[in-house]
Fold this sequence. Notes:
By secondary structure, the protein is of the alpha/beta class. Helix content is 34%, strand content 20%.
Amino acid sequence: MKEFKGSIDRLRVNGERLRQTMETMSKIGRTKGGGVQRLALSDEDKEARDLFIKWLKELNLEILIDQMGNIFGKRKGKRDDFTPVITGSHLDSQPKGGRFDGVLGVMGALEVLRTLEENKIDTERPIIIVDWTNEEGSRFAPAMVGSGVWSGSLDTEWVYNRTDASGKRFEDELKRIGYKGEFPCKSFPIYAYYEYHIEQGPILERENKIIGAPKGIVCLHWYDIYVEGEANQVGPTPMEGRHDALCAAAEMILKVNELPSKVKGDLVATVGEINNYPNSRNIIPDKVHFTVDIRSWDDQLALEAWKILEKEFKAISEKRGCPIRVEETWKVEHSPFDKRLVQRVLDNAQRLGYPSLYMVSGAGHDASYMNQVAPTAMIFVPSINGRSHVEVENTKWEDCEAGVNVLLHCILQSANER
Ligand SMILES: [Zn+2]
């Protein structure tokens, strides 16, 4: 391959090609409301993976699929013995999710490699593009299991045995769609990891910025709460003496909502899922399951907040005679990204003329597991009206292109460092 003739600083990606690629991908699992539904290890996930691999092959990349179904495409470096630069995100989506979450980071990385290829630009280090399996965690909880196992934070067998709502095992579904690869899912040395993603919040838009450079990701604590009551006919059973599991849960849920105002700092707390049993209008509910999600930049604060909540739950449970059981489902510590790489994102945004913002990521990403094993940074672009994980999720095409230009130059700089 010949070297790129012009000044490499002037190199830009092809925004129109990026838009077409994104639109082609968004046809897979398209929903009536204009979003996509590509749950992990579903037929739609398989179809998206197949198309992705077809595009990787067009670039003559070396393709590798590991035992968790993570897909890697490697572009050789001049010094193939050097540790690689990795970039990517995920192709799976939420139920009735958006067209940009995750997929923009994978298609953006693809556009970077296409740009390098058509301009015949070689880099010192190899560049690897990745699609991580089951980032969303909505079909199989928890989230981010592909990068979680790869980074050594989660156990392969444990993930294989996770089941979806219909009882299907993760491993069986992975095999069924043909993506249980042969390579061990294990980290290898990496020089830098960049993940490009939509912001999924309102801050960039509000501040009128195009590029976000998160200093890291907040901690993420998930709990599952099971409340027990006593079922009975609603008519003949007097109000006093009832053990109504749903009323106990209702009180607890409001405590979750009030929690952030009771602790100082940037904590947020949410109940997003509730299941009520038997869920009949004429039976007093005897079983309720709900989830609690606590996030903060300060891990200790999140733990202290949980202790407050636990006490309040206990008091409500005793008052209403409804025993509770708590499962601590998932804990990821806050991840401060690599300062040098974050600065590189900001510097490139400035050089390319995009207003940027140093910020925090409130959403979890594969980058938080990657950050444990490699120098990591992320690049954000605005979400219109701050909406994400919904069908109306949207980002301006020009902003999508801007983010990929920043990604391109971050990758070029890292991949040419000795
Ligand atoms: Zn995502």
